[in-house]
Specification:
The complex is a heterodimer of chains A (341) and B (334). Chain A has helices at 19-47, 62-69, 85-91, 95-102, 137-149, 168-179, 208-213, 227-242, 271-278, 282-292, 298-321; strands at residues 77-81, 126-130, 156-161, 184-190, 193-194, 197-198, 218-223, 248-253. Chain A is of the alpha/beta class. Chain A is globular and about 50 Å long. Classes of the chains: A alpha/beta (341), B alpha/beta (334). Bound molecules: thiamine diphosphate and magnesium ion (MG).
């Protein structure tokens, strides 16, 4: 098991910056900001009653989805949880299609049948949006098994939380993935809480990477408030899995800034604790670092903010303009079409 | 002199299922079998015996004891382009995978707005009658039939055991196949060239004019035996094998009800909330004015299955009971 890593750029304060390096830093920051602003809009639209149902936001955890997705190729598969807007955006599903989904419109990425918790996309091999805690992990295993049996050197990346790591399926899956040497990249988003239950109240061993290692797989833990650290760790993991060496477990140590969902009064933690973590905000720390390293300027960040605002406004306009599926279609997609039902 | 049997061969239900799987494994490289003890042990009911020798441990895959995970892995493998057959030892253990079956298998196509269908087969043994008591004997196929998004097959005959699997593997959606463990040793005749059979219609297994008995799986044979006895008394019962509990082919039993005007349903499931309740309700909704008598049901007694032989027998539908109820029903005037 590896220990927490530092970033490639950490010690490179005063040196010349290549255009590629700058482009990449801009890309990482832009990605995190896109997610943050998208989530803010979702919260606003929830209050405006445009979005209903459960809504789980990703503020504070952006570096995980952004860093990990950098390590995946378009051929890889992703299985995510109900807190998956950021993952969907990073995988390449458009903000418009995601928002239309939350509006319950038929142009949504799941035709309005899924909502916030069940985003799907075949073109990017995005297999949900699973709202049964731990329920997506076996599916990821199966996707990886199919790849292995068909000799396809692809990675199935499976996101889940610290809470999921207490479920039986998690343990069954680590066992089986190692036993069968399946190309699964397990990404545990440890944000220290499962709804209102702090990790110390739900895990006998709170070092999840250490616990996972007991199944005999390669594990690492990373400070997931640092996008570059996540990216580097994910890169290493994806290379490992892709080369056929079996599964890999990466614990991303992060924190959720907002409530668990829109119904959560947050009785289980103090404001001070949240404020303390906000000082480590991945967007704040990374942009500060890029500014002080001279990789980017305030104007660059302003431009990123403008682009994000524009994209999101367009997405809202799109979702508003989208249409509702006729009620006559209610029982479609229970079975494949053209078959007796 | 030909008796029509020269093109037939005799085999057990178990052999029929095994042949169906062997056939599928030979014809389609994407097909593989996984489950507990399906390989080296040969299957807990010896259904997959010998397959690992022919197809190897990659395609006849022994899993650890983790029903939820290997059913979920079956979903993923199906999504990933394979045609997995997942075997669960018995229906009682399928409850450890109930989450994957209901929350994922049955929902993926719908939740994804039609993007991801799941061509997965889940086979499992079901049914009582072998003194296995309250955790190994239940008949929950009707319970699974409650769930939209999956198909529920209950092959009773050797022909269906042999022919339904192939059709199910061709289906784009998840199919659960319930094999009554009491049927595995049953012998039957099959045409040498028997092929696939449909998986969405019921069959009239015996024609009769006086009354309709609707059944499925192992209870079908109790109904058929009862019909033979009743025939000697001059009562001709029509016997319908539902074959598939979802989608339910109501046309076949509604038409029969319209011919005989009396219906008895024999169901190994518990009475409350059973598939027999569903069939009865549909007859009431759609053939009410055809009936000369109230629909009757013979189901399993509402107890967890007892171990003692006499109690287990009393708990399950019995042929004698069928005969008794039929006699009473045909005597009643419409
Ligand atoms: C099987 C199951 N049990 C309970 C729930 C209710 N629930 C939804 S989210 C959640 C907490 C999960 O925590 P974690 O896995 O850490 O993910 P996070 O929400 O922190 O991202 C719970 C208990 C559920 N959806 N599924
Ligand atoms: Mg958590």
């Amino acid at each position: 098991m590896k220990t927490e890593r530092t970033t490639k750029l950490a010690s490179a304060e005063k040196r010349s910056v290549s255009p590629m390096e700058r482009e990449h830093a801009l890309h990482l920051l832009r990605s995190m900001i896109r997610i943050r602003r998208f989530e803010a809009k979702c919260a606003e639209l929830y209050s405006a009653m445009k979005i209903r149902g459960f809504l789980h936001l990703y503020d504070g955890e952006e570096a995980v989805a952004v860093g990990v997705m950098e390590a995946l190729t378009p051929e890889d598969a992703v299985v995510a949880t109900y807190r998956e807007h950021g993952h969907a955006l990073m995988r390449g599903i458009s903000a418009g299609a995601i928002l239309a989904e939350m509006y319950g419109k038929q142009e949504g990425c799941s035709r309005g049948r899924g909502g916030s918790m069940h985003l799907f996309d075949d073109k990017t091999r995005f297999y949900g949006g699973n709202a049964i805690v731990g329920g997506g992990i076996p599916i990821a295993l199966g996707l990886a098994l199919a790849d292995k049996m068909q000799n396809k050197p692809r990675v199935t990346c499976c996101f889940f939380g610290d809470g999921a790591a207490a479920e039986g399926e998690f343990h069954e899956c680590l066992n089986l993935a190692v036993l069968w040497q399946l190309p699964v990249f397990f990404v545990c988003e440890n944000n220290l809480y499962a709804m209102g239950t702090a990790i110390r109240y739900s895990h006998s061993v709170t070092d999840l990477a250490r616990r996972a290692a007991s199944y005999g797989l390669t594990t690492a833990a990373v400070d997931a408030m640092d996008v570059q650290a996540v990216e580097a760790a994910a890169e290493e993991a994806a290379v490992f899995v892709r080369s056929g060496k079996g599964p890999y477990f990466l614990e991303c140590r992060t924190y959720r800034f907002r409530a668990h969902s829109m119904f959560d009064p947050e009785l289980y933690r103090t404001k001070a604790e949240v404020e303390e973590w906000k000082k480590r905000c991945p967007i704040l720390t990374f942009s500060r670092k890029c500014l002080s390293d001279g990789i980017m300027s305030d104007a660059d960040i302003g431009e990123i903010e403008r682009e994000a605002a524009l994209e999101i406004n367009e997405a809202v306009a799109y979702a508003e303009a989208c249409t509702l599926e006729p009620v006559e279609d209610l029982t479609r997609f229970v079975y494949s079409e053209g078959r007796p039902a | 002199m030909s008796n029509g049997m020269e093109h037939m061969r005799k085999l057990t239900y178990r052999e029929a299922v095994r042949e169906a799987m062997r056939d599928a494994l030979r014809k389609d490289e994407r097909v593989f079998l996984m489950g507990e003890d399906v390989g080296r042990y040969g299957g807990c009911f010896a259904v997959s015996k010998g397959l690992i020798e022919e197809f190897g441990p990659e395609r006849i895959r022994d899993t650890p004891l983790c029903e939820s995970t290997f059913v979920g892995a079956g979903i993923g493998a199906a999504l990933g382009g394979m045609r997995p057959i997942v075997e669960i030892m018995t229906v009682n253990f399928s409850l450890l995978a109930a989450d994957q079956i209901l929350n994922n298998t049955a929902t993926y196509l719908h939740m994804s707005g039609g993007l991801f269908n799941v061509p997965l087969i889940i086979r499992m043994a079901t049914g009582g009658g072998r003194q296995l008591a309250a955790q190994h004997s239940h008949c929950l196929s009707g319970w699974y039939a409650h769930i939209p998004g999956i198909k529920v097959l209950t092959p009773a005959t050797v022909e269906d055991a042999r022919g339904m699997l192939w059709t199910a593997l061709d289906d784009p959606d998840p199919v659960l196949i319930f094999e009554n463990s009491g049927l595995y040793n049953m012998e039957g005749f099959l045409p040498i060239d028997a092929g696939p059979v449909d998986i969405d219609s019921a069959r009239v297994r015996r024609a009769g004019k006086d009354l309709t008995i609707i059944s499925y799986s192992a209870s079908l044979f109790k109904a058929l035996d009862a019909a033979e006895t009743l025939s000697k008394e001059g009562i001709e019962a029509e016997v319908i094998d539902l074959r598939t509990l979802r989608p339910l082919d109501e046309r076949t039993f509604l038409d029969s009800a319209a011919r005989t005007h009396r219906v008895l349903i024999v169901d190994e499931g518990w009475r409350s909330g059973s598939i027999s309740a569903e069939v009865s309700a549909r007859i009431m909704e759609k053939a009410f004015f055809e009936l000369d008598a109230a629909v009757e049901r013979i189901c399993s007694a509402e107890v967890p299955m007892p171990y003692a032989k006499h109690l287990e027998e009393a708990a399950l539908p019995r042929m004698e009971k069928i005969i008794e109820v039929v006699r009473k029903m045909v005597r009643s005037h419409g």
